[in-house]
Each structure stands twice: as C-alpha cells, then as structure tokens.
Amino acid sequence: xxxxxxxxxxxxxxxRGTVAKMIFKPWVEQIEKAGGKVLTNKRVxxxxxxxxxxxxxxxxxxxxxxxxxxxxxxxxxxxxxxLQSSTxxxxxxxxxxxxxxxxxxxxxxxxxxxxxxxxxHPSNACFGFDATTGWTFFDLNALHDEYRxxxxxxxxxxxxxxxxxxxxxxxxxxxxxxxxxGTCVSGxxxxxxxxxxxxxxxQGVTHFAPGSxxxxxxxTTSIENVFMSGDWIITRHGSWSQExxxxxxxxxxxxxxxxxxxxxxxxxxxxxxxxxxxQVTRKINKTVREFGxxxxxxxxxx
Length: 302
Ligand SMILES: Cc1cc2nc3c(=O)[nH]c(=O)nc-3n(C[C@H](O)[C@H](O)[C@H](O)COP(=O)(O)OP(=O)(O)OC[C@H]3O[C@@H](n4cnc5c(N)ncnc54)[C@H](O)[C@@H]3O)c2cc1C
Prior knowledge:
alpha+beta; FAD/NAD(P)-binding domain; Polyamine Oxidase, Chain A, domain 2; 10 strands; binds flavin-adenine dinucleotide
C-alpha cells in the first residue's frame, strides 16, 4: 500500500557508510553532549509504579533505573517479552491486548553475480510469485557506493511474509531468488551466482492484519507518565515502518517535553499527500467502512 501511495519515494535512498557510523554514533554523541547517557546491553523486564500510579523507574535484571517518564521503543515481540515478566503491565488491559498482535517472517538475501545485468530501476517491488509473499529487490551497484565498481551485479532481495520460505535450505532459497529475479529481468537467467547470503528474521516485521488495529497501542497509556513508540503505535502522521517508528518516537518525546515543560519540541515533517488513485481508494474504503461500522465496529482501518 505505502509503495503505491508514494511511488517516487520508493526509489530508496541508502546511507553513505554504515548506519552505525553515520547515524547512531553521532546521535549517541549528541545525547551525551546534552547530558544523557546511553546504556547498552540492558534489557528492561519490568516497570516500577509508585503509590500514585505513576511510573518511577524500570527494572533491568538486577538493576533498577529511576525515571520521571518512560518511553517504550521496542517491537511487538520485545514488548510481549516485557509483558510476560511484568505483573504490573499484565494488570493493564491495553498491554494485555498486545498478545493479539504479531509479526511476519522476513527473509533477506544478497546475491553476487559474475556479470553486470542491466536492471531498469534500482528499486523494485514484486508481487504474484507466491500467494502471500511480497518482495523487493535492489540493484546495489546503483545504490551503494561500495558496490558501484564491482564487476558483477550485487542484488539485495527481501521477502516479506516469507513464513513458508524460512524452513528452506540456503541453497533452495537462493535458487528460488535467482529464478524469481530471472522472471523479472531475463539477464539473471544466464548470469552465474558467485556468492550469496541468507538472513532469516522470524516475526521480524509488524503484521498489520485486518482486525489488529483495535489492539495496537496509543502513544499514551493508562500510566500517565508511560508512553509508547514504534512502527505499531497508532499515529495520525501517515508514515510506515522505520519512518513511523521514528515519528512516533518524536511524538512520545514531545509528550514528555510538554508534560515537564522542559526542552524543545521536535519538529515533525508531515508526509506528502497520497497519490490520486490511493486517495480515491481511501474514499471508497471510508464510505464502505462507515456503512459497515454498525455491523463490525472497531474492525476497519482508520
Ligand atoms: C529484513 C527487514 C527489512 C526491513 N526493511 C525495511 C525497509 O526497507 N524500510 C522500512 O521502513 N522498514 C523496514 N523494515 C522494518 C523496520 O526495521 C522497522 O519498522 C523498524 O526497525 C522499527 O523500529 P523500532 O525502533 O520501533 O523497533 P526495532 O528496530 O525493533 O528496535 C527495538 C530495539 O529495542 C531493543 N529491545 C527489545 N526489547 C528490549 C528490552 N526489553 N529492553 C531494552 N531494549 C529492548 C531491541 O534490541 C532493538 O534494538 C525491515 C525489517 C526487517 C526485519
């Protein structure tokens, strides 16, 4: 859906250099400069609530960290694990409802070929190869500086809702990927594979299944100083995935800033309007939804 709603944006822009070096390192430095501290290798497994019902800290194993406010920024699976070890959160309906949410399996592959295959577009979204699986492939020679001068094509192919593909062997997966690539671009049928990697990510991506919306969490919770962020948190912004995780993080941070009247609000850039065909489809969906609301309340997407 989001590919069709903003097609020019799908010409992905990749980071020049590693994300760790280009984004996370400067980010951590900025936090430290502002007086913050980033603690790595700490797993939050519970939250401490005071007698007024407000959070006063989090527990990480044997350690306890005091807090004026808490923002959770973990995936659904991460949050489910915290829930399992937190009787405090288990007592809250909106957290218990999380158990109705889940992820889909993702398969990430990279293929090195013995020759350059001409590919019209650097970023490509594909459907119709497997009934429930969508996939993307990227021409990394065109997108990554490090592969620009490679003698052969380097392709990243990622499969979403790849549940039935994960049990295959690496060899079977790579054969399938080359076959599917060959269907899209004939040059891949003759090219020889010289190297490949396969990464399986079970439950790696949030599953926005019909009916799941009612269980997704809001940025605010029934604990007044506990906030939520992530790509599965409800927002009116209109972004998805990484951008949504980032935006909901900013929104949660802004709620904390407003609460304590301290700090500068983050500026959140609105997304561009959907393309015309999606606007029309949305209108139809809205009309049908309003009509069906009385029959299936809380089922339809907003
Ligand atoms: C293979 C693959 C390809 C993808 N491709 C794209 C793409 O092309 N474009 C796109 O927009 N999105 C893509 N996504 C989705 C994107 O990765 C997610 O939308 C995004 O990472 C969500 O960010 P987040 O910060 O909410 O959660 P996460 O990235 O999951 O980060 C949560 C962090 O919390 C940590 N954590 C978990 N539990 C705890 C705990 N108890 N205590 C402390 N820390 C904890 C985790 O270790 C992790 O570092 C892809 C995902 C996968 C798996």
